[in-house]
């Protein structure tokens, strides 16, 4: 079977960074990521911060993600650093990642999110779902106009992260677009 892609953002869906800062959500573990020398530090412009970055992760999410029927792929400003810091905490293998290159964090004049074009290019016509906390209708319009396959843009509230109903919706989408591979 030719599984669809699942583009995973870290901050928002996996790390509910907007939750009350003094209260870690139930089921989550706190990870402290040192900022010195990390790509995430350079991207976010946090080099002047001395304290490690606080990340909340739910270790159960990895198991749920692996059972969804997708090929998982990081779609985050963490890029390959997600394999170093996030994947082990979730019990995920090393995953491919979208290298955003010069598009990283660059605002577009048309209001489309900076990730959207590179994700469509990376998918190259394959069906995909994208979980993030920053998509808009402009992104859905862009995907519809520029992508040959199905594209589900699934918004996740950054105060609560991925929940059971999100996993059900993603699994339903994966089943709906899973197609047999053609043989030569």
Structure keywords:
184 residues; alpha/beta
**Number of helices, where a helix is a run of at least 4 consecutive DSSP H or I residues:** 6
The largest β sheet comes out as: 4 strands, parallel
Could you name the ranges where pLDDT drops below 50 across 5 or more consecutive residues?
40-48
Give the class from helix and strand content and strand pairing.
alpha/beta
Q: What proportion strand?
A: 15-25%
Order of helices and strands: EEHEHEHHEHEH
State mean pLDDT (0 to 100 scale): 88
Radius of gyration, in Å, reads: 16 Å
How many E strands?
Answer: 6
* Largest sheet, spatial ordering of strands: 4-1-5-6
Shape: globular
User: What distance separates the N and C termini?
Assistant: 14 Å
Q: Fraction of residues in helices?
A: 25-40%
Q: Could you please describe the fold and organization of this structure?
A:
With 184 residues, the chain is α/β, with parallel strands linked by helices. It is 30% helix and 15% strand. The chain has helices at 39-44, 60-66, 81-90, 116-123, 137-146, 164-177; strands at residues 5-8, 29-33, 53-57, 71-74, 128-132, 151-155. The strands form two sheets. A four-stranded parallel sheet has the order 4-1-5-6, with helices on both faces. A two-stranded antiparallel sheet has the order 2-3. The radius of gyration is 16 Å and the shape is globular. It starts with a strand and ends in a 7-residue tail after the last helix.
């Amino acid at each position: 079977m030719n599984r669809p892609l699942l583009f995973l953002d870290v901050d928002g869906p996996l790390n509910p960074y907007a939750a009350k800062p003094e209260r870690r959500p139930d089921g989550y573990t706190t990870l402290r990521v040192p900022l010195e020398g990390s790509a995430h530090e350079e991207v976010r412009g946090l080099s002047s911060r001395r304290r490690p970055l606080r990340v909340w992760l739910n270790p159960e999410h990895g198991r749920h993600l692996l059972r969804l029927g997708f090929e998982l792929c990081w779609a985050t400003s963490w890029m390959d650093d997600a394999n170093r810091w996030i994947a082990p905490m979730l019990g995920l293998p090393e995953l491919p990642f979208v290298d955003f290159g010069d598009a990283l964090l660059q605002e577009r004049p048309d209001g489309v999110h900076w990730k959207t074009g590179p994700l469509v290019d990376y998918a190259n016509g394959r069906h995909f779902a994208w979980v993030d906390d920053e998509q808009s209708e402009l992104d859905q319009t862009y995907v519809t106009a520029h992508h040959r396959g199905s594209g589900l843009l699934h918004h996740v509230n950054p105060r609560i992260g991925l929940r059971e109903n999100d996993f059900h919706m993603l699994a339903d989408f994966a089943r709906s677009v899973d197609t047999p591979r053609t043989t030569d």
